[in-house]
Amino acid sequence: MYAEEHDKIIEQLRRYIREDDATFGIFQYGGGADESYIKADKQGLRLFALELLMAAQKSNEILHDKEKSIIPIDFEKSWVNEDSDTFVQYVMPVVSRSNARQPVGPTNTIKDKLIGAGFIALMVFLILSMIVGVFSIIKWLL
Q1: DSSP strand E in the chain: where?
Q2: Which of 48, 68, 102, 134 is found 20 to 30 A from 81 (Cα to Cα)?
Q3: pLDDT for residue 40
Q4: Which of 76, 22, 19 is nearest to 44 (CA)?
């Protein structure tokens, strides 16, 4: 049931999206792949999303086929910017998320709390020392 609905959505999107008006590209603004951005118009984004949607539709058959391991994406279409730095050529479906990155969040350990408390105590000590020093100088001058 789900696959049939998926196919209907893909067919509707194919009829709705016009390739001749679209542009899409992945570029780097710095030295590595971690400094990348997508430059595209609305139609280009829709076409790229459609390519990924079609790859998702094919992923189950690729996972169960011993000879196939990738789903090719046609990156030489007219809507893909020729000056793009990165071309997504295929999707390699996987079964599990064992190698996925775990979300990294801030962790407050006792050491972090002690360092913060020590810093606050040092600031209070310095401010009190300045106040005592200023009063000592004033008393000495009078």
Answers
A1: 24-28, 36-40, 71-72, 90-91
A2: 68
A3: 92
A4: 22
